[in-house]
Amino acid sequence: MSRPAILFVCLGNICRSPLAEAALRAEADKAGADMLVDSAGTGDWHVGSPPDRRAQQQALRNGIDISGYRGRQVQPGDFRRFTHIFALDADNLRDLRRIRPANGTARLGLLMDMVPGREGTGVVDPYFGSDAGFEVTWDDVTRAARAIMEHLR
Ligand code: 4NP
């Protein structure tokens, strides 16, 4: 297989998808796997911004510094540059299908479809909730990251 290139996409690219990126980077490092990992948002409100402070704290609690991540919006070229694009929820997946160019080659899917028992579900947006929501997000994306590593083996 060619080198895996994985893109996570949520709405703002400041809460869920940066945590998914961090979780998969950590799993890939642990496994010594060579892969490209990135994240983006369907929206453009947070382009150039660091992850939400609560997302940064959640990652730090797990020993990962994501303060250097910067928000970006998904681009048409991403559908050729990445081998897999994972949407964090069903709205993100719908938006991705709408903007996918005809020559896109990336496999597109819902992230939690990778996790047995969680098929068809989304990673809940923690942005408007309490800090506890970020714990749930981290749990979800960590399970998904481990499932992706299994899938790629
Ligand atoms: P994310 O969370 O999609 O997980 O990054 C959100 C961040 C910002 C907004 C919505 C969701 N917003 O509306 O600004």
Write the layout of secondary structure elements.
Blueprint: E1 5-10, H1 16-31, E2 36-41, H2 53-61, H3 78-81, E3 84-87, H4 90-99, E4 107-110, H5 132-152
Parallel strand pairs: 1-2, 1-3, 3-4
Helix pairs in contact: 1-2, 1-5
The chain binds 4-nitrophenyl phosphate.
Query: Class in CATH?
Result: Alpha Beta
Question: So what's the overall shape?
Answer: globular
Low-confidence stretches: none
CATH architecture: 3-Layer(aba) Sandwich
Strand adjacency order, main sheet: 2-1-3-4
Q: What is the count of distinct domains?
A: 1
CATH level 3 topology: Rossmann fold
What percentage of the residues does DSSP assign to strands (E)?
5-15%
Q: Could you tell me the radius of gyration in angstroms?
A: 14 Å
Report on the architecture of this protein.
The protein is of the alpha/beta class. The protein has one domain (5-152): 3-Layer(aba) Sandwich (Rossmann fold), CATH 3.40.50. Helix content is 39%, strand content 13%. It is built from five helices and four strands, in the order βαβααβαβα. It has helices at 16-31, 53-61, 78-81, 90-99, 132-152; strands at residues 5-10, 36-41, 84-87, 107-110. It has a four-stranded parallel β-sheet. The protein is globular and about 40 Å long. It starts with a strand and ends with a helix. The model has no long low-confidence stretch (mean pLDDT 97). It binds 4-nitrophenyl phosphate. 4-nitrophenyl phosphate (4NP) binds at residues 10-16, 45, 125, 127. 4-nitrophenyl phosphate is lined by residues 10-16, 45, 125, 127.
